[in-house]
Amino acid sequence: MMSAAFGLGFVLGRRLAECSVTSIRALPFWVAAGFSLLNYLYGLLVLPESLPVERRERFSWRRANPVGSITLLRSHRELLGLAFVNFISSIAHEALPTTFVLYAMYRYRWNERTVGLAIAAVGVCSAIVGAGLVEPFVARLGERRVMLLGLVFGIAGFTVYGLASTGAIFWMALPINAMWGLSSPPMQGMMTRRVSPSEQGQLQGALSSLRGVAFMIGPILFTSVFASFIGANREWHLPGAPYLLAAMLLVAAMYVAWRATRPRMSESEPAFASVAADSIN
């Protein structure tokens, strides 16, 4: 449901963005502010508390900081591994929003309208995957397999993005990459079951912190790669390099996800925490 809502937001956002290039340039920002205010009021006045009083923990500065969040993520090998996968996937995700407009206009000579339609198509495909495919896939294949399958689709989608010589080929890759959305919901499900009810908020806060760091890394990384591979004196002229890099990041994420969630053969098998820590380092 969250993925579907995110996808529908892409569609509505595209319509608002069209206003910024016609007459009311500030309208998208005012509407975004209004939605944020509605979110706040809904959370304050309507949304019920999900954690009963008896399951709440006392506030502690030891947990209310980034180090405390990392301590929670390190409490289980699968939890730390999946947090690392979430972090790498968040970096890879930034390849599209940070370079797509530049890439599409440079490589395919698309105008603002075509770019907007493509973004809306991304939103529609994401909504379909989130609302209609995640639940039946998980019911049939299980969370672990669906998570890994979603990462495979993400790798394939970004690879086609990077190698697509025409806009038509790029369009065909949109639904493929949208299937990457299969990976996140089961990953979240597996992570939430590794912490206690009183730690659910702390877990989501830790993941949000990791995504925040990823969102700082991604724009700098992918725009720099894009600029480097379209330079006039480059031996390799490869405009799709940011998407090929994103595909490689997802390959690494899939390997870590496979290692982190595989059944342990024996208690003597080393915990995955050390593997994930080595990967992070």
Describe this structure in words.
- The chain is mostly helical and 281 residues long.
- The chain has a single domain, classed as Growth Hormone, Chain: A.
- It is 74% helix and 0% strand.
- It has helices spanning 2-20, 27-45, 66-73, 77-93, 95-108, 112-141, 143-163, 167-178, 184-192, 200-229, 241-261, 272-280.
- Helix 4 runs antiparallel to helix 9 and helix 10 packs antiparallel against helix 11 (241-261).
- The protein is globular.
- It starts with a helix and ends with a helix.
- The relative contact order is 0.16.
Query: Structurally, how many domains make up the residues?
Result: 1
Distance between the termini: 34 Å
Briefly note the CATH topology name.
Growth Hormone, Chain: A
Instruction: Report mean pLDDT, rounded to a whole number.
Output: 84
**Low-confidence runs (pLDDT<50, min 5 residues)?**
266-281
Q: Strand percentage, roughly?
A: under 5%
H-E string: HHHHHHHHHHHH
Helix content: over 70%
Query: Could you state the CATH homologous superfamily?
Result: MFS general substrate transporter like domains
Overall CATH class: Mainly Alpha
Q: Which structural category do the helix and sheet elements fall into?
A: mainly alpha
Question: What is the count of helical runs?
Answer: 12
Q: Which overall shape is indicated by the principal axes computed on the Cα atoms?
A: globular
Q: Please compute the radius of gyration using only Cα atoms.
A: 20 Å
Main β sheet profile: none
What is the level-2 CATH architecture name? Up-down Bundle
- Total strand count, please? 0
